[in-house]
Specification:
The structure is a homodimer. Chain A is of the alpha+beta class and about 120 residues long. The first copy, chain A, has helices at about 30-45, 45-55, 65-70, 75-90, 105-115, and strands at about 65, 90-95, 100-105. Chain A has a domain at about 45-115: Orthogonal Bundle (Arc Repressor Mutant, subunit A). The first copy, chain A, has a three-stranded antiparallel sheet. The longest helix of chain A has 14 residues, at about 30-45. The radius of gyration of chain A is 15 Å and the shape is elongated. Chain A binds a DNA duplex (30 and 30 nucleotides) through helix 4.
DNA sequence: CGTCGAGCTTGACATCTATCGAAACCGTGT
DNA sequence: ACACGGTTTCGATAGATGTCAAGCTCGACG
């Protein structure tokens, strides 16, 4: 299974599901829950949540792995593994430039999750 | 370690952390990430996400466990275990009335998570 | 006071996950 | 062509997690 280019986002879980109303307003069905739980699970690790915040708040909209790795005590391969999880969840996108790989956020899913948790009034 | 009453919310992870700016605007520090990752992890299971949505969208602001359990194929003890996870994450609150236990959402944390993921503009 | 039903807790088990080191991969520069 | 540094993948392992069955607790109601 070779993935040739770096800009492809490994595809969000199933199909791009429509943006759902907040859970405070309407129940999510099982399929949607299974879908979105993948994204929440990806954020459910301290390292990944920090990685996500570093990527999302990166000035210029992107950040190099070489700037992410030294911020943690864990090995580079583990960082890479966490980044893959975020990628597969559809939360970030990776792109190679020269020798370095840059990550950028995917605001669409972030917005969807944010809207989902909005308690409304 | 006995917890005697049902209305206490098992306490949010550490202390009630201040509402943080969106991750798109500022990095979260390790302690905050560890804290909030617990909540995201709690939502990172399809069953729990559905439970959360059923609780958050319950008319009257609360819902009986007896209305939650039959919506799934899994055993009651597993439902109870998932509800405990949501409780310990600070996402829901349980209260016993007569023979039944009712769950209600805790909007504060939901709002915090929602704001955290807001990509802003 | 004894029993019944609704939920919770405990113990056990199979699966998943976070982590590491080693090896492979892929541009760059010599 | 070769070696180098950054990143990912692979294989292995300890620990966490989802699930169930069985036992327990707490009110309600005879």
């Amino acid at each position: 299974m070779s993935k040739s280019e770096g800009s492809v986002a490994e595809a969000a879980p199933t199909s791009e599901r429509q943006c759902c109303p907040p859970i405070a307003q309407q129940r999510v069905d099982a399929a949607t829950a299974a879908d979105l739980a993948i994204a929440f699970k990806a954020l459910g690790d301290p390292v990944r949540l920090q990685l996500m915040s570093m990527i999302a708040s990166a000035p210029g909209g992107e950040i190099c792995v070489c700037d992410l790795t030294p911020a943690f005590e864990i090995s580079g391969s583990t960082i890479s593994h966490h980044l893959k999880t975020l990628r597969e969840a559809g939360l970030v996108d990776a792109r190679r430039r020269a020798s370095w790989v840059y990550y950028r956020p995917r605001p669409a899913l972030m917005r969807q999750l944010s809207a989902l948790l909005d308690p409304g009034a």
